[in-house]
Write a structure and sequence with these properties.
mainly alpha; two-stranded antiparallel ribbon
Length: 426
């Protein structure tokens, strides 16, 4: 196949520009900072009561977010099946986009008297974001030839980082210029929702509709998705390189996604960093991530995807071990820069590697649903483990525990490289 026109490629990448503001503003900086301020010991000295039990504030946030990811993992096979059957993949992507954007905007009403509302909106914003991603990702092999997948995938992440940094700067300006910092933050939540919906329209206008060949369900649409996943699993088992890569992806995703979701909590709780410095840290991460995504794409052309992923996972292991020992603001900035460098690269390269290793098929949504479910279950395990260890011990111990996931991912990547070499030699 040929890569789609520049207009279509740019339209696809524009969705990263639109929805990445959720990842940066809501999950990474502004919401964690606001949540910590609203739910801190000064307002809840005995912890937060939820479902009859008391929790550490960030522990509860991790559990709520993990539950949201679990919902997505269970729903995405059904939704992918319905989308493929009806031929309206774009409509489901639009539905989750709107769910996420509205939930972000409703965080405007979150305060110490409405903690449950804040947590529920936070969860549904995540469901909207990740629910739309499975449909967004599944467009990649439809619009890009294999030789262009790394480049196109990196372009999406790069657009996302640039857009999210711009929205971050708007929020930063509000925080710096308004007397009421809490109001500045909630206004930023509102603007995130508006930004997400507005720029997503470019994507919805330019992406093609699903091909007619994708519109036949083998079983009832409510179970067809799980049936398709079973078929995908059967195919994966027959493809030793892809099978090992997905195992590696499962393990290192537990670590990558968890670090991205809890890094700012560490800065707040352990280093007592003020909001303005947390925002600066997040901007550093995103700017370095732009460079990281492009550098990893170039390196993959020279050294191969798996080799670059091996190097990247090694860096993640070093980051977690170092993170356990950091005690100063400068150390945190250095670690944040390293996180940014490897964050964009490992996500972009993982997506394009999967696209290259999967067989030629017209059921792209089914294969990317399988990829998405793998990642979401990994995040559920990672977040739950992180929250559980924090509740029992401390957030530092939680950070250190992530090393286990990265080591397992590294071992599976080594096995992937070995099997890939054997297959080529054969």
């Amino acid at each position: 196949m040929q890569t789609a026109s520049k207009k279509v490629i740019n339209g696809w990448a524009m969705y990263d520009w639109a929805n990445s503001v959720y990842n940066l503003v809501i999950t990474t900086t502004f919401f964690p900072a606001y949540y910590a301020a609203v739910t801190g010991l000064h307002n809840f000295p005995d912890g937060i009561t939820f479902l009859g039990r008391r929790f550490v504030n960030t522990e509860l946030k991790d559990y709520v977010l993990a539950f949201g990811f679990l919902v997505i993992a269970l729903l995405s096979p059904i939704l992918s099946s319905i989308a493929d059957y009806k031929g309206n993949k774009k409509n489901f992507m639009r539905f989750f986009c709107y769910m996420g954007a509205v939930s972000c905007s409703l965080l405007f009403f979150f305060d110490k008297n409405h903690v449950t509302l804040g947590l529920m909106c936070f969860m549904f914003a995540g469901i909207g974001f990740y629910g739309s991603q499975v449909f967004y990702n599944s467009y990649l092999p439809e619009i890009a030839a294999e030789k262009d997948m790394d480049r196109v995938s990196a372009k999406g992440y790069t657009m996302g980082y640039i857009g999210s940094v711009l929205m971050q700067m708007v929020g930063f300006a509000l925080v710096m210029t308004m007397e009421d910092k809490g109001l500045a933050l909630t206004i930023t939540f509102l603007l995130v929702g508006i930004w997400w919906v507005s720029f997503a329209q470019i994507t919805f206008n330019r992406l093609p509709i699903s091909s007619a060949s994708e519109r036949k369900a083998k079983k009832h649409v409510l179970v067809n998705g799980f049936h398709e996943l079973k078929l995908v699993l059967h195919q994966v088992k027959q493809m030793p390189v892809l099978k090992r890569f997905l195992s590696a992806f499962f393990f290192y995703s537990m670590g990558v996604q968890t670090v991205m979701l809890v890094a700012i909590d560490f800065g707040i709780k352990e280093l007592k960093l003020p909001d303005d410095k947390l925002i600066i840290t997040a901007v550093i991460i995103q700017l370095v991530a732009i460079v990281g995504a492009m550098v990893m794409s170039k390196l993959s052309e020279k050294y191969g995807n798996i080799n670059v992923l091996l190097f990247t996972v090694l860096l993640w292991i070093g980051i977690c071990i170092t993170g356990y020992f950091i005690t100063s603001e400068l150390h945190f900035y250095i670690i944040a820069s390293l996180v940014g460098l490897v964050m964009g690269g490992i996500q972009s390269l993982s997506r394009s590697t999967y696209s290259k290793l999967m067989p030629e098929t017209k059921d792209t949504a089914s294969f990317f649903s399988f990829y998405d479910v793998t990642e979401k279950i990994a995040i559920v395990v990672g977040l739950f483990t992180f929250g559980l260890i924090e509740g029992i011990s401390s957030i530092r111990q939680s950070i250190l525990s992530l090393v286990v996931f990265f080591v397992l991912g590294f071992i599976m990547l080594l096995l992937t490289a070995r099997k890939q070499k054997a297959v080529k030699e054969f």
